[in-house]
Amino acid sequence: MIILSTDSLKGYGLNRIFELAKQAEYDGLDLSVDYGQFDTFNAEYVKKLIDETGVPVHAVSAPGQIKADKIKELVSMAKTIGAKVVILQPPKLLDFKLAAWLKVEIPRLREKEFISIALENAPGGTFLGFIPEHSMSNTDELKKFKHICLDTARLGESRKDLMRSYSTFRKFLVHIHLSNLFHGKKYAPLKEGILPLESFLTKLKQDRYPGAISIKVLSKFLHAGEDDKVVDGLKEMKKYYDKYYTKIEAMAPDSEGTQA
Question: Which of the chain's ends, N or C, has fewer CB atoms near its CB within 10 Å?
């Protein structure tokens, strides 16, 4: 399933993003919540757009670090609009209270609401050049969280090997933010950059990855504001996805299924 992160079309109203995704024949949207854009967290309005366009929202992505009450609100919204996954960002390094809450309460919230709540790998920022800005961001902590969203551009930014990271996190992956790294800049189009996205997509299909693949690129690469170019750019990335994912034959299932 290929979906579009609404972050990719920042500057457009949410209704236009639904329309453009539909024109480009994407399977749905990954709704990036922005508390400065009221439409993005208005569940009834989002549901209205879903009903009018026929474009579902598969995932709801939190805007950076948010507190426990906001996380609960996003889970409630996701349930209302029919989203399957809520994606959270790792806490800041010294936010011990939020980190403890996530570790204890998220498993309970998943079970209560019957929804996947995933933690995304952290951006590459550090203090003093070597201390990570975020907690719960190393390999062991991500695996303990059970549900993982993998951002390919962040891996490239952190100089981590994409295929090795995939192998490490494979059975915990529930969502992917797909983009490239071009001249050190994150969120470049799929064809432009240094990451081995062809091999990655093919391996995902061969391994029967069960989640959605969300295209997340900077709006400038899509020529936001010029609708025809936007749709052409989205279709071009969908062709890339189809070539290296849709048309690849899946392998027989094995015992290493995705973590429930």
Answer: C
Number of domains in the chain: 1
CATH number at residue 80: 3.20.20.150
Chain segment 38-76, per-residue pLDDT in tens: 999 999 999 999 999 999 999 999 998 899 999 999 999
pLDDT tens across 197-255, in order? 999 999 999 999 999 999 999 999 999 999 999 999 999 999 999 999 999 887 766 54
User: In which domain, by residue range, is 46 found?
Assistant: 2-246
In the 8-state DSSP scheme, what is residue 50? Answer: H
- Across the chain, the runs of DSSP E, i.e. the strands, are 2-5, 29-32, 57-61, 85-88, 116-120, 126-127, 131-132, 148-151, 173-178, 180-182, 185-188, 212-215
Of 102, 71, 59, which is closest to residue 211 (Cα–Cα)? 59
What is the rounded end-to-end Cα distance, in angstroms, of the chain? 19
Residue 251 lies in a domain: no
Distance CA 25, CA 18 (A): 11
Segment (H or E) for 162: helix 162-169
The length of the chain, given as a count of residues: 260
pTM for this prediction: 0.92
